[in-house]
């Protein structure tokens, strides 16, 4: 009897949590079907073109393309601490894609994380960020997606262990992880709408709690992405690393700035999204992130070697041996070949994981905007010992990042697995 009571109480609590998730989720105006009917009745090339641009700003292709590159056909795996989640097929195929969705179904999936059958979407889909997307913008994206080729491709099932494979449990997750809300009129908050909603930048650059929810009180303070880290984008952090407004806009538009090039998780952002954004939207995004506190530009000159830069050390020896040929004797870099390291963000971060990852694994050739190409960098996983890599990392961090030279060979060994 006691077990039945405990079981009943437990089930009651679960049911209560599920029921409670709806009123606790922020309430908006209901979907305006009349406005949607008028919008789609007057559907024209302008609506579809607007939807195409919004899909670019929202970077839909980065997660929803297929492994072989088919647009929006799904199947790319996203590794999370809880298992692997596969991007869905969002082509207009009626069986494998969203061909049976209404515009209202699409809007609720995009902004509320709820499928037409009522099941919760996993927050790998950034509905936490998309929550304040306007219905007009959602409808435009839906109109654009419905002009794409329908692809009959079923994506692999998610590989999530129990209890993470129980979608109903997301009811509790939603109780304690509310969506990002814009503070004010979205039409007057262009930069915030681009960064926090469409661009969903906080999904990578804001720390997460133990449940994988965004810690919104620490917005843009940087976050671990597993083997690498997304750096802080606060105005102070950007200023401390020497970024200017001009640098940030160049980085987003061209994938290149004096502080480095777009690599790792940011490279798909350039490929599918930021290089195609209008200059005015890039500028609005930059002003929102920096709060207008950075200088417009910097009168930089080529780095002059000083006594520290020519001090002999084990790390310096490794750098001269395997890095200087491309990155320059004193880390000044070579245009069109390799970025400068003496002002590179990866050497300045307190977390060394990005620098270690690139040295260990290398970087594939990068095709940037405007036809610019940065050559491939080999990884040194086997060419250098873990101690040599540690010495190299310590040298670069100390000389060019003002960071402590405290990386050990054991940390390098862990990063290699």
UniProtKB/TrEMBL annotation:
Cofactor(s) listed in the protein's UniProt record: heme c
Keyword list, A-Z: Heme, Iron, Metal-binding
Gene Ontology terms: cellular component: membrane
Binding residues for heme c 1: 60, 63-64
Pfam entry (one): Cytochrom_C
Gene3D superfamilies: Cytochrome c-like domain (1.10.760.10)
Coiled coil location: none
Residues that hold heme c 3 according to the record: 323, 326-327
Cytochrome c domain: residues covered: 46-149, 186-293, 310-400
Manner of cofactor binding, per the entry note: Binds 3 heme c groups covalently per subunit.
Molecular function, one GO term: heme binding
Positions contributing to heme c 2 binding: 201, 204-205
PANTHER family, sorted: BLL4482 PROTEIN (PTHR35008:SF4), BLL4482 PROTEIN-RELATED (PTHR35008)
Protein name in UniProt: Cytochrome c
Record lineage: Bacteria, Pseudomonadati, Pseudomonadota, Alphaproteobacteria, Hyphomicrobiales
């Amino acid at each position: 009897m006691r077990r039945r009571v405990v079981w009943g109480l437990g089930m009651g609590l679960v049911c209560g949590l599920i029921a409670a998730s709806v009123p606790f989720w922020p309430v908006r105006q209901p979907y305006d079907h009349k406005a949607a009917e008028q919008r789609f009745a007057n559907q024209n090339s302008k609506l579809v073109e607007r939807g195409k641009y919004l899909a670019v700003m929202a970077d839909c292709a980065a997660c929803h393309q297929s492994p072989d590159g088919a647009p929006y056909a799904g199947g790319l795996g996203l590794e999370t601490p809880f298992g692997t989640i596969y991007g869905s097929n969002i082509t207009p195929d009626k069986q494998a894609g969203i061909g049976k969705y209404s515009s209202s179904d699409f809007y609720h999936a995009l902004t509320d994380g709820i499928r037409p059958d009522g099941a919760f979407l996993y927050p790998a889909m950034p509905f936490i960020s998309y929550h304040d997307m306007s219905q007009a913008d959602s409808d435009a994206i839906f109109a654009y997606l419905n002009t794409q080729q329908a692809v009959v491709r079923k994506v692999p099932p998610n590989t999530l262990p129990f209890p993470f494979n129980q979608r109903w449990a997301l009811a509790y997750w939603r109780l304690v992880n509310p969506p990002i809300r814009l503070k004010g009129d979205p039409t007057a908050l262009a930069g915030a709408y681009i960064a926090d909603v469409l661009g969903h930048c906080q999904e990578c650059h804001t720390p997460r709690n133990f449940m994988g929810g965004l810690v919104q009180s620490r917005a843009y303070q940087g976050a671990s992405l597993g083997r690498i880290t997304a750096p802080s984008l606060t105005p102070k952090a950007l200023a401390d690393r020497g970024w200017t407004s001009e640098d940030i806009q160049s980085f987003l538009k061209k994938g290149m700035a004096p502080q480095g090039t777009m690599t790792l998780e940011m490279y798909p952002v350039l490929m599918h999204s930021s290089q195609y954004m209008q200059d005015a939207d890039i500028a609005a995004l930059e002003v929102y992130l920096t709060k207008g506190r950075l200088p417009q530009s910097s009168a930089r000159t080529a780095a002059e070697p000083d006594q520290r830069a020519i001090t002999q050390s084990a790390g310096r020896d490794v750098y001269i041996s395997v890095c200087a040929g491309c990155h320059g004797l004193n880390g000044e870099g070579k245009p069109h070949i390799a970025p400068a390291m003496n002002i590179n963000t990866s050497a300045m971060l307190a977390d060394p994981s990005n620098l270690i990852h690139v040295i260990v694994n290398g970087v594939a050739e990068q095709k940037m905007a405007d036809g610019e190409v940065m050559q491939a960098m080999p990884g040194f996983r086997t060419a250098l010992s873990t101690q040599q890599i540690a010495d190299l990392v310590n040298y670069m961090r100390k000389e060019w990042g003002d960071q402590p030279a405290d990386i050990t060979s054991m940390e390098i060994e862990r990063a290699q697995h």
